[in-house]
Specification:
Layout lengths: L10 E3 L19 E5 L1 H5 L14 E9 L6 E9 L2 E10 L2
Antiparallel strand pairs: 1-3, 2-3, 3-4, 4-5
């Protein structure tokens, strides 16, 4: 992609795969879409030990597309545990 000065030059928000998902308004909503995800919806993206923790954790999904002709979409799953956010999963989507 070459040298970029900011996130806006690199990515665009992508609509969620589930059209019923309610998006969260945030400062960078042009760069990535963000939505709260239920523990059940999040479980499909978790593996190993993380799967057993779904009921005690808050999850948010983030989805964006790279600004390239062949750029795919990337989904990130964030979890809030003990007041701190951490990325727990990612997935490349062919859209």
């Amino acid at each position: 992609m070459g040298r970029l000065d900011n996130l806006t030059e690199a990515v665009d928000a992508e609509a969620p795969l589930n059209p019923d998902r309610v998006l969260i308004d945030h400062t960078f909503d042009g760069e990535f879409a963000m939505a709260e995800m239920s523990p059940e919806d999040s479980a499909q993206y978790l593996c190993g030990q993380e799967r057993g923790q779904v009921s005690d954790t808050s999850y948010h999904g983030v989805l964006f597309r790279f600004k390239r002709r062949d750029g795919g979409a990337l989904g990130l799953l964030w979890a809030r545990e003990g007041g701190a956010w951490k990325r727990v999963s990612y997935q490349v989507f062919e859209m």
